[in-house]
Amino acid sequence: MDSIRLTGVRAEATHGVLDFEHVEPQPFVVDATMFLDLSEAGASDDLAATVDYGQIAKRIVNVIEGEHVDLIERLAAKIADSILLSHRIQRVIVTVHKPKAPIKVPFDDVSVTIERARDPEGGTLASQIGAAASASASTSAANGSADSNAAATGTSAMPATHTAIVAMGGNIGDVEQTLRAAVVAIDGVPGNQVNGISPLYRTAAWGMEPGTPDFLNAVVELTTTLDADTLLNALQTIETAHGRSRKVHWGSRPLDLDIIDFDGETRDDPRLTLPHPRAWQRAFVLAPWADLEPAARLVGPHGGPVAELLARTPDHDAVERVSDSWILGGSVA
């Protein structure tokens, strides 16, 4: 199989078992070899037919700079999982070097190398997403096949297609690149297709400590054959791959993905309430959503036209539209 090799990706972080390693940053260096079919890219000269290794490098850095781990074995596994979120990549070999490890004899380097692949057993986070998506599609098809005409003709019903609005945000690390990588990952989940991406907004970190970095926010609209719970699982997997800790609910984070609306459904469930229970009062959600879909409506007891809800939020003048083309690259910093 063809491969792309990325070597020497560097970042500093506080990974390690010893107490001082939790507070004193040290360098980590990552090499990754990604295996995929490059025949289409070789014939078409089209970036969309391959993997953007710049995005992969940023994704690796985001994981290194993300949630603390004790072992570089765990760090390597998280990096491999994040790389396999790119649906074109079938297998990856990741080496994590820890050149400043606290070893009391002279040494040049210590490293861990792991290999992960998309496999039918669901051995990686990416595989688990794919397995869940396939199961969801199979269930939908099975339910639809009860139709006697479909059964008689030997055809199976297509899985139901849903429309979802997902809000994105973050304020740690290279947030723009993280959001771009998240869009790619969401689109790469089997059964998903991203159809719309809003402009990018900047929002002050309201209610947090002085000096907390601003948040960047956007909204994507997608169609999916997944049910809402399976989509939520996929989004949380993507968050984890980018260093998001579920222990942090009201603080800074590298990536936050929230389902705001799913087919206009209303649902009172502690794990996933629909629509999002605070969307109606969040300008950083409503403003990009209104840009993306000017006629959008939020359902539920606090619902209404999104543009009108936005006008009633107390902080609607505090969100700043910073880029219409952020998804294409560059920086608004």
The CATH superfamily of the largest domain is identified as 7,8-Dihydro-6-hydroxymethylpterin-pyrophosphokinase HPPK
- Rg from alpha-carbon coordinates: 21 Å
DSSP helix fraction = 25-40%
Instruction: Give a count of the beta strands, DSSP E runs of length 2 or more.
Output: 12
Q: What general outline do the C-alpha atoms trace?
A: globular
- Integer tally of domains: 2
Structure in words:
The protein is of the alpha+beta class and 333 residues long. The protein has 2 domains: 3-117, 2-Layer Sandwich (GTP Cyclohydrolase I, domain 2); 162-328, 2-Layer Sandwich (Alpha-Beta Plaits). Helices cover 30% and strands 24% of the residues. Strands 5, 6, 7, 8, 9 and 12 form a 6-stranded antiparallel sheet that branches. Strands 1-2-3-4 form a 4-stranded antiparallel sheet, with helices on one face. Strands 10-11 form a two-stranded antiparallel sheet. Helix 2 (53-64) crosses helix 6 and helix 8 runs antiparallel to helix 9 (306-312). The protein is globular, with a radius of gyration of 21 Å. Residues 139-153 have low confidence and may be disordered.
